[in-house]
Amino acid sequence: MEHQINNLMRVSLENLKDMIDVNTIVGEPIKGIEDGTLIIPISRVKLAFASGGTDFGREKEIPNFGGGTGGSVSLHPIAFIVIKENEVKIMHVEDRAHLAEKLIDKMPEAIDQIKSFINNFRKESI
């Protein structure tokens, strides 16, 4: 026989799953009317969840059960991906963007510089 705490946790997690999906982190694209710019919001989601329960009255044929769950969801916008014509930019909401995000922003520029260096090196070798 399944314990009642399992059922309590299953129902709670199913409700959390319904609240949070991929569209919570990567939002629905917003299309600009004037110039066709596409804006995609990116958010950080924090989730806290706790569950607990107890059996009492074990001497009875059907013991009593008391339990509860609680949770918290925090949604914080961190950036917007802006796509305009053939250009893609990441615009951070905060100035203190993470190092990894800054590296990703600079990656296309770095690849172009490496390609240019290789092409110049090949031309000089010939």
Give keywords:
alpha+beta, 3 helices, 4 strands, 37% helix
Task: Explain the overall architecture.
The relative contact order is 0.13. The model has no long low-confidence stretch (mean pLDDT 78). A 4-stranded antiparallel beta sheet has the order 1-2-3-4, covered by helices on one side. β3 and β4 form a beta hairpin. It is of the alpha+beta class and 126 residues long. It has 3 helices and 4 strands; from the N terminus they run ααββββα. The termini are far apart.
The succession of helices and strands, N to C, reads HHEEEEH
Shape assignment = elongated
Poorly predicted residue ranges? none
Strand order of the largest sheet: 1-2-3-4
Number of strands: 4
Cα distance spanning the termini: 79 Å
Averaged pLDDT: 78
> What Rg is obtained from the alpha carbons, in whole angstroms?
26 Å
- Tally of DSSP helical segments: 3
Strand content: 35-45%
**Main sheet specs:** 4 strands, antiparallel
Structural class: alpha+beta
Précis, in short:
A 4-stranded antiparallel beta sheet has the order 1-2-3-4, with helices on one face.
Question: How are the secondary structure elements laid out?
Answer:
Elements: H1 4-19, H2 22-25, E1 30-31, E2 38-56, E3 64-84, E4 87-92, H3 99-125
Antiparallel strand pairs: 1-2, 2-3, 3-4
